[in-house]
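This part of the workshop introduces the protein records we will be handling. A learned vocabulary of local backbone shapes supplies the integers on the structure line. Getting from the letters to the tokens is the skill we practise here. As an example, a complete record with its sequence and its structure tokens follows.
=====
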Amino acid sequence: MRRPVRQNTRLESVESVVPNQASESRFWDDIFFIPAGITESSRWLSAATPPDRPIMNGTHPEGVPEAFESTLVSQRSGTPTGVQGHFENVYRWCRCAQPPATLCHPYRGEVPRIAVEEFSRILLRQSFAAFALVLMALVSPPFLWSQPPATKAAAQPADDPDAPPPEPDESEEFQQLPALDAKPLPSLERLLKGPAVDWIVLIRGTRVLEVEPVSPRPNTLQKLQDRVRKAMDAPLPKANGTDESARNEEKARRRDLNKFNIVLLKNDEDDGEYKIHIQNIRQVIHYEDLMLKRIDLLLNEERAADTYELLTSLQQRDPNWPGIAERRDRLKFVEGVMKLKKKLYEQALAQFDQVFIKNPTYPELERQLGLAIDPLVQVAVTAGDYRRARHFIARLKRSFPNHPVVTRWTQELTALATKELQAATAAEQAGDGSLAVDHAELAVKIWPDGSQFGDGYRRICQRYQRLYVGTLELAVGASSTPVAVERESRLLESGLFEPARMDERLVRYHTRFIQDWEPTDLGRSILFRLKKQTAPWEGGEVVTAGPVVAEIAARLDPTHAEFDERFASYVSGARSLSPFEFSVEFRHAPLRPEALFNFAVPLINTSQTATDAIQTARQRFVRGEVSPERIIYRRALAQPAAGKEYYLGEIVERRYPSYERLWQGWLRGEITFVPRVPLSDLARVAKLPEVSLFEFAQPRTHLIQFHPRHPALRNNSLRRALVYATDRQTILNDAVLKGQSLARGRLTSGPFAIQHSATNSLVSPHRFDTRLAYSMLLAAKKELNGEIPKLRLGVSSDFVEQAAAKMLAKQWETVGIAVEVIEVGPQIPFNAAAEPAPWDMLYRSIQMTEPLTELWPCLTLDTHAKVESLAHLPDWLRQELIAVDQAGDWPSAERQLRRLHRDLWSEVHLIPLWEVSEFMLSRKQLRGLPNRPMFPYQDVERWQLQPWFPKDAP
């Protein structure tokens, strides 16, 4: 084939490419070329032809392609095609005041300029011949017009006289070019490593030229044609007298737009930059398009890894290349199909979901989604995880609501839920409320969207109300925390009197058994009158005076198991006056008699009751099934079957491994009540919908207590070194509050609440002073013969307390006191004589409601105030505790408590850390909770739960 003219930095003259004598004749040949078959045209054109320009009868001296017979004009504008169009172009050329400087020939270079006068002579001599030729063309045989052109000619504007270029010839060099159909696609390795190469597909024979990447890209041909069309549509500069240079330059520039620069791949024979007419190009296949073709083949072979590598390489070259998004979606679809074949259904579903987001109408996507979700739903239903099954059904339904898999599983789960609701109704009729609730809850868990289940579920759950509680600690096993033990004790039992609220820095009590009481004998005797009827929420049992007096007598008998030494120091006796009246005589008048009567009250005589029967009216709930993951508490006294209102009948406490999982369970509807909300999550849970947040009336105090028999910790200097080396504010902010308001936590100086009347306002918290801590430590080393033993700090399994204990140990180690943090279970009651000692220091969190009666057990780490438990305390502390207990009036008791507060601070008998506000959380369906509760399950026997179940999409 003939090469395009090489484009050098300096344009060579046409004489250096072709002989001068031939240039003019080639120009005439291009203009007056007559198609083969019109033989008469040569005779009447010979007279008008210059002697040195012979007439060609269908052939060109240098060889013209056959395709040129039917393409005589440019495709660039609307110029007529065929012979008539050819002569119209001749006419336009001759009308020019000055012909273009050059005429581009795509394979033979540029032709010299022809004088305007010569064109004028040609026009005069051939005007008649042109008319005759046009007439002959109109009546010539039909095959001249029906012959298909090599490419459809576009209309040529009047201002562009450029004739269409000829096709490549049939030379040996042209035949050596590969055809598009026979040229193999580059391999994966070749496309990844390069170099980049574009394919130029010629019109003649769909031959392929391999060239360096062309520009502009992509859609190269379209952009070039648009550029030519835009230039041709613009008007030419107006003629300026005899100076036509600007007009001619503009025409030449427009003709050059048809020339397309290419750079052939370098080889030994020829290489470099060339020009080719865009009308000789059928197609430009860019390197990126070759990569896309290879990607399609790889996807057909399900070679996802290779596809991903090649697609990534293509994205790095041009992330916006047309076709990348479609291949990316197909890659995800193919990966999903591959995962599906390996039975990795969830991974396949993830791939199909990504395809659906980009293209919901992707072929075969609906069927493949069904194949992925159907086995997932089957496995979930078999395992009883109906929430998971509904999750996958909902995912498919959002994409294809009428999918057969959605329809089938909806019908099956609805039928299964209906069966469970029928079983619930049968259990209700049999009087088994707990079993009825089990079946009803399972029915709405299977299919909560079934409106037909609502009425039956509400009726059953209204009659037998079950409350689900979420917590991190249960009162079971050695790992139960003191908080969990305290919460359970409040749930199981309630005394004759129990704390109800805080009023003017004092705790106020209430009772549900005693109607009123009247002090006599200057307060040394009290007459109690019991209620003769109970409220509906109390279960209908009435407490009489006989069992109450018997319980008091048992606590006064030193030989009885219920003997209470401190209670006996106040009460001398009790007697029954009537079935609903009894009197109690005191040795000395108590300051707060309500605090003394917090004990179990038998319903009947204990000697006539079986050991496994309910014995006390004080019990709200009793333990049922117990496991490491949950505890079931049932109402101690059954509610009447024909009651008008019903209350909680069962409480289920569920253990969660973390608060993150607990809040996840809350959102899923698994729990209704949380007895303790960490301060770090307070702001987040307060924004949850349909929740009620309750702040406890009393804060919880954190402190460090020392083992009374540890020889080193009996040293006052070492205890002071510990307290001055403690940066409590930093630990409070980082480990407890975690960004919450400082009003939620405060540094304290004593073991009871700051707001209580027993607090000495003149005592401020110990300051953080490392220099003073070092001084105290040096003094302690001197007093302890130069050695400080490694100490053990015991802490419960509560994660907040453990985080704070670790920070404490780290701070103490900075001053030279080695401390090891160990986890310990409940340490109450405490055995000071136990060997070996379980801990050296104990991290505690307490909620002291009544310091007058609770400070003694707190300091002795016991459940009750006993004289023998004071034996290991210092003399000054024993004397002050007894003085508080024997105070005859409330002002004297308050003075003794404040003095004790000051001495505990100065002697560093313990290290008060901080007090923090505590909160509990419930759904609005749970009613009857106090606004400012004293403890989590306060008045729990009055709580009512409106039936509900989560209907949100899982």
User: Anything to note?
Assistant: Confidence is low (pLDDT under 50) at residues 1-120, 128-163, 605-614. The first strand starts at residue 104 and ends at 105. The first helix runs from residue 20 to 32. Residues 428 and 436 are 5 Å apart (CA to CA).
